[in-house]
Amino acid sequence: MTHARDFGQQRTPPDPTRRAAAIRIPFPARLSPHAERARRHTLQWLQEMGMLTGASATAEYDALRLERLMAYFYPDATGTDLELAADFNAWFFIFDDQFDGSLGLQPEAIEQVVASIGLTMAADDTTLPAPGKQSSPLVRGFRNIWHRATAGRPAAWQHRFRAHWQTYLAAHQGEAHHRTADRLPSLQEFLRVRRESIGVQPCLDFTERCGGYTLPEELHEASPLAKMREITADVVIFVNDIVSLVKELAAGEVNNSVIILREQTGRTLEQSVERIAALANTRAARFVRLSSTLPKILSASGVLPEVRGHVDHYVAGMGNLMAGNLAWSLATARYDETGVAAVSRGRQRPWAHLTETTSAQSGDVSR
């Protein structure tokens, strides 16, 4: 039987990442001055959590400069906040790399993995391992960033943060189903899952945390902010899919809008990249139009000036995500020749097998 994943094993274009330069993000990319501090902190944290072991794995991870992505996302964050952001971003990427191998084709196994991690968000200590048991590095790392991120935060924000993490974790099962299906999903089917697995929602929750506020639910979930969040996710997805295309073709990944568009339309890869870049530009332009409607909407709704300031910060945060993701993606080693080689011919990253421990201990972490 031909699985959807087999569609990824085709000729790679000469250099599709250059097409990302055609994407027009109408916001500046600003880099926090605390990036190097966050880098040093997160390398130490990953080693302490057991997610990185040995000098070779640490050097391979460090070459990706993932802390700079967070330095773009939160350019005005305090040093401590940026350290925390860099830690949870490191967890994001290391967790994502678990699915490049056989686990990515096993929805039921993924369900066990995400359940064990999701249990760490319980309001009490029932998720601690039984006496004499050691939690896995992924569970231990997630528990650490969860408690640090939620400490002292309002209940409404914690509820939102938890819901977004749960949806993010669950989306990995949907991606596994896409890889093992007899056909690729439609672009809309793909986006419904990818908007969750891309992790934009928790990142925007952290924008609120860095700003020291929690948007009222009636503003957060209403138009136009809800639509602007969706646009932000789509732009991040489209940029990621263009810059990671060669890497994902090498790994046989099919959860990529360029690959899906090619199969749906018969376009070449180059033509599909151009179309996805155009979709990103169209969405970014719509984001600007929607943001221009906010002052009138907020005024008509009687929103207090302080809250209007929070909305302005939140909207700027969405711009930081779009602009920062593009800037970092064009510079990181994750998507260059070394990044492609790191996942070619069946090779996986040194940290790509942490879920084996997580699965084995999933029965322990709930005690």
The gross shape turns out to be globular
Major pleated sheet? none
CATH class: Mainly Alpha
CATH topology: Farnesyl Diphosphate Synthase
Helix percentage: 55-70%
Based on secondary structure, the structural category is mainly alpha
Rg, alpha carbons:
20 Å
Q: What letter string, H or E per element, gives the SSE order?
A: HHHHHHHHHHHHHHHHH
- The number of distinct helices, counting runs of at least 4 residues, comes to 17
Strand content: under 5%
| CATH superfamily label | Farnesyl Diphosphate Synthase
CATH architecture: Orthogonal Bundle
What is the strand tally?
Answer: 0
List descriptors.
single chain; 367 residues; mainly alpha; Farnesyl Diphosphate Synthase
What would a concise description of this structure say?
The protein is an all-alpha fold.
